[in-house]
Write a structure and sequence with these properties.
The chain is of the alpha+beta class. It is 35% helix and 29% strand. The chain has 14 helices and 26 strands. The strands form six sheets. Strands 3, 9, 10, 11, 12, 13, 16, 22, 23, 24, 25 and 26 form a twelve-stranded mixed sheet that branches.
Amino acid sequence: MAKEITPRSEDYSKWYNDIVVKADLAEQSAVRGCMVIKPYGYAIWEKMQHTLDAMFKETGVQNAYFPLFIPKSFFSREAEHVAGFAKECAVVTHHRLMNSPDGKGVVVDPDARLEEELIVRPTSETIIWSVYKNWIKSWRDLPVLCNQWCNVVRWEMRTRPFLRTSEFLWQEGHTAHATAEEAEARTRQMVQVYAKFARETMSLPVIVGHKSPNERFAGALDTLTIEAMMQDGKALQAGTSHFLGQNFGKSFDVQFADKDGSLQYAWATSWGVSTRLMGALIMAHSDDDGLILPPSLAPIQVVMVPIYKTDDERNAVLAKFEEIGKALTAKGISIKIDDRDTLRPGFKFAEWEVKGVPVRLAMGARDLANDSMEVFRRDTLEKETMPIEKVADHIPALLEDIQKNIYRKALDFREAHVEKCDSWEEFQEKIQTGKFLLCHWDGTVETEQAIKDATKATIRCIPVDSYVCEEKGKDIYSGKPSDRRVVFAIAY
C-alpha cells in the first residue's frame, strides 16, 4: 500500500491526496466540492472534538445548537460581515419540488418561491445574535458563553479534502460580554486553548499572533490566530479567535441594563476550528509510507498482528495477545488484534503503517516459545524485541515518547525553515522555497497587498509568542519605517 503513495518530493499535492484515500480517511462524494468522511477519519475527528469540548467546558462554555438556515436580511445588518461572505453563500430560494410536466423526474415548483431567501450558514454570528437579543436583558445575564458543533457551507470552486471543501465540519464559539475588556480577554483565552490543543494533542507547533487588518475575519476588530507550518513550508491557519466589538450587539439591538441602570450594547467574540485540522495532521507529520498519528488522536494506538501456520499456533498467539490487550485497555490504551485470516502479515503491516497506528506488536509461535515480541513504532520505523511480560508496562511510556517525538520533529522542521529577511530580492527568492520569513512591515494594507500580488505571500500573523519581533527597521517592500517584524508565508 505504501508503494501506491506518491513520494512528497515528486508531487506533494498528490502525496496528500493519496494519504487521504489510502489511509481510509475520506473520499469524494457525488456532490461537487463535498466529501465523505469515512469511519476511520471520523474517529480521529471525534477524538479532536472530545478533547476540545472538554477544554471549552473547563472555561465555562456550554454547547447549544442554532438553525442551519439564516434569513438573508440578517446579513444586511452588518455590512462588513456580509461583504466577507457574500461570494461564498449558498442560497435557498424555493421550498418545494414538483413532478416535471414532461414526466421526467422533478423540478422546482415556480409557485413555491420563498418570501425571503434563506442562506445556508457560512458562519452563525447573525442568527446567534438575533437569539441573544432574547436572552440578554441585564448585566446579570452576562456573560453568555455558547459553542456549537455543526456543519457550514462556503461555496468553493477549487476544493481539497479537509483543507478546503464547500461543506465542512467545525465548532464555532460565540460569547457576549458586559465590557470590552472581558470580551478581549476571552478572545485571548480561546486562542491559547487552541494553541495548547495543537501543541499537546496534535503534536503541532503553532505560532500565536494577531492577523493584519487585511486578513481579519469579516466584521472583527481583532483576530488572533494559530499558524502552523506544513512539510512543504507553506502555512496553514489552524484556528482563529475574533474580538467583534459591539458590531453585532448594535446590528441586532442586543442591549442590557448596566449596574447603574444605563443601557449598553453587549460585546462579542467568536472563535472556531474545523476539519481543516485533519489536513494539518496529515501534512505536518506524515511520510512517504503513509499517515503518522500522534497517539492522543489515534483511533487505534496499538495494533497486534499474530503470525502462525496452524490453528493451534493461531490460538496460542491470539490468547497471549488477548491477555496483553486486556492489560493495555485497563491502562486506557486503545488496541486492535488483527486476526483476519485472509491477509498475510506483511500486508497487515503495510496497511497499519499507512493508517498511522503508533505502535505495532507482532508475534509468532516461535516468539511465544522464546518469550519475545517485536515492538514497532510508526514515527521512526524502528523495531525492538523485548520479553513478552514487559510489553504492557513498556507501551504507555513508548506512546508518550512517540507523542513528544512527533512534536519535536515538527518543531525542528519549522525552526529550520524560519529566518529573518531584510532584502526584497532575497524575499522574492526565499518565499518560493517554502519558508516563514520574519520581515519588517510598515503597517499599511497597500504594502501588504502589493507583496501578495507580487509573490502570493501574505502576513500570516503578527506574533505574540514564539518569536521576539519588536525591533525597529524598514519595510521589506516599501522601505518605510517599521516597529516590528511579522510572519510572511505562502498559505493554504
